């Protein structure tokens, strides 16, 4: 069951791509560059349309069907 709307999904993809790009293209000497790989999570949740945190918190950004 999906719990994310279109705008939410688009914003997650943009944020996820930005974080992954930082991990790939950011300065090599950054010790915490691995944090950028957290961007994979919003990309995956956007692609499947379901966020486990939304389920726990009772949030639903998609239109009622």
UniProtKB/TrEMBL annotation:
<feature type="transmembrane region" description="Helical">
    <location>
        <begin position="34"/>
        <end position="57"/>
    </location>
</feature>
<keyword id="KW-0472">Membrane</keyword>
<dbReference type="InterPro" id="IPR021309">
    <property type="entry name" value="YgaP-like_TM"/>
</dbReference>
<keyword id="KW-1133">Transmembrane helix</keyword>
<keyword id="KW-0812">Transmembrane</keyword>
<protein>
    <submittedName>
        <fullName>DUF2892 domain-containing protein</fullName>
    </submittedName>
</protein>
<feature type="domain" description="Inner membrane protein YgaP-like transmembrane">
    <location>
        <begin position="1"/>
        <end position="64"/>
    </location>
</feature>
<feature type="transmembrane region" description="Helical">
    <location>
        <begin position="9"/>
        <end position="28"/>
    </location>
</feature>
<dbReference type="Pfam" id="PF11127">
    <property type="entry name" value="YgaP-like_TM"/>
</dbReference>
